[in-house]
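User: Run a structure prediction on this.
Assistant: Running it now.
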Amino acid sequence: MDKTALVERDIKLGAALVDALHAAQFPLSAAFWFYVTDSEQWKLIIASSLVDSSGPHVAYKKLQEVLAASNLPISLSEISLVSPSDSIVKLLRSTVDVPRDGIRLSGNTINGVFIEDAYLYRTEDILPSDRTQTDTELRPGSAYELSATLAQRGDEEGAIAAYRRSVATEEPALASKAAMSLGVLLAKKGDLEGAKRAYELALESNDPDVAPFAALNLGALLAEQDDISGARRAFERAIQSGQPSILPYAAFSMASLLVDAGDREEAERWYRQAIVSGQPDVASMAAINLGLLLAETGDRAGAREAFEQAIRLEHPAFIPMVALTLGSFLMEERDVEQARRMFELAVESGHPQAAPMAAASLAALRIQQGELDDARRLYQLAANSNLPSVAPLAWVNLGAIFAAKGELEEALKAYERAIESGEPLAASRAREERAALLHRKEKD
């Protein structure tokens, strides 16, 4: 069997043999396909205490009996029956928790040993006597290293199993890191209860490098589950850690939680704490949210200062949306000139959402100022964006400008685009304008 021959059929045959061995009560410690580099062959490794207790001859005879009874098309020449104390068996059993569907390891280095390729089956009926003391006498951290490797390769099930082994067997520093990583993977897969338990384990470790991150992630998870008091305790724990890299995020998360809980005064305090943290992403988001919060509570001056502070932070990812928001706010304040500057800043950014939205707002302002040509340019930009919240009405307004300038055919085309969008308000207005325009053409 060459290396490329381990296909789905072979994997299924190996799984069927494992089931047959279990059914025959054949003592089974491990079962896996293993690519032997020297001979360039795949071998199905079967590890059994029967090799030690009764000898290889008896063990092979019983294995042959199981093969014959099961009628599986696997030759004994493809199988190596070994003792549980075999070095490769001990290495894999001590570092890999095999998921129910099996796991493939390709190009992994475990405890200093390079595994070119292997496929491991889960053998749930392992006899207690099969596991020897030497199984745990491997280099500390090997299970954690394996889990990290598997996670990097995208093997999430294998990584979860290995992280669980690391949590259960390795020294506290590694176990806490494994618990944290396990929580992240489980949350990603939607196992929120499992993730919660993993974060709590990492938090209970009190590891100064891990516990603050675990507290932050636990708080976010509990907030998603509407456990406000639990989330608040977790965020407080993260804040109390004093960890500089955690404090800004914990303060921002606490503020957002308190907004949802209706405690706006405390939320304002924590948003301000996040702003002064100096962390660019968090400070910008906190300034934006603070501005929105203060605007809702009627503190217009405070809201404007918060939005302007977000602009001063000059975070390129946030400036377009902040400029759009501040521009709309300034229009409400009747500060038309400053609003124009903010809309222009958002348009110039080329941001896929902020630019067309700002273009539409700026176009409306230009019409009020009698600048139809510039308004036409801006509405065209908004219309061409195909942004559902902006483009349909932009086509309607563009049609109106064309009609006002006597370009009736272009106006009709613009109205057709608005109708085709299917957006109720824009389509209704476009139909009315188109009907009026066609009636006007008939009269002319």
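Residues 306 and 425 are 34 Å apart (CA to CA).
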